[in-house]
Write a structure and sequence with these properties.
extended
Length: 178
């Protein structure tokens, strides 16, 4: 009888652990609702939990506060990134002025890379992307350089922007802790 009780107990424990692990892998908590990060329709991470993110709890600011800042404000805070970007523009370019009107820092940095990579004057690219009838970076490239691979160049510039922003933020954090 002891052996039977032991086998049933072990089987029950294994079954409970397996069902918890499967539930966690599918992103649902005990109530059936999502927990932790999930992917949006556009492939961006969304955190549906009520917990502060690791980034916000460490830096003292939330992702929402970071997203509400304009590209100019973010460049003011991240001088390392501003210094790197200055190399993509002619000497004396005011990055605060250049970044005004863009939806976010990533869009501005990607546009700066496209301008530099394809030799498209930045003011023309900016006008297409931020004017009265704004268009996407890819459409702006297509309109200004029809012979260019707009999709490929957009992907390349967005990747460059993402990496550059990530590296600059890491450098700023390292500098702040030193």
């Amino acid at each position: 009888m002891k052996r039977f009780t032991l086998v049933v107990s072990v089987t029950l424990a294994v079954w409970l652990l397996a069902s918890e692990r499967a539930t966690a892998q599918h992103g649902h908590g005990p109530s059936g609702g999502p927990v932790g990060p999930a992917m949006s329709q556009h492939g961006q991470m969304q955190d549906h939990s009520n917990r502060p993110s690791r980034e916000s709890s460490q830096s003292g600011s939330t992702n929402q506060e970071h997203q509400k800042m304009t590209a100019s404000e973010q460049l003011d805070r991240n001088t390392h990134l501003a210094t790197q970007l200055q190399g993509l523009f002619p000497a004396g370019t005011d990055l605060k002025l250049a970044s005004s009107g863009f939806k976010n820092l990533g869009q501005f940095v990607a546009a700066a890379h496209v301008s530099h990579n394809l030799g498209i004057p930045f003011d023309q690219l900016k006008a297409k992307m931020t004017g009265d009838s704004p268009v996407s970076l890819g459409k702006a490239i297509h309109e200004l350089r029809p012979e260019a691979d707009a999709k490929g160049e957009t992907k390349k510039a967005e990747h460059e922007a993402k990496e550059e922003i990530k590296e600059a933020e890491a450098a700023s954090k390292n500098q702040a802790t030193s």
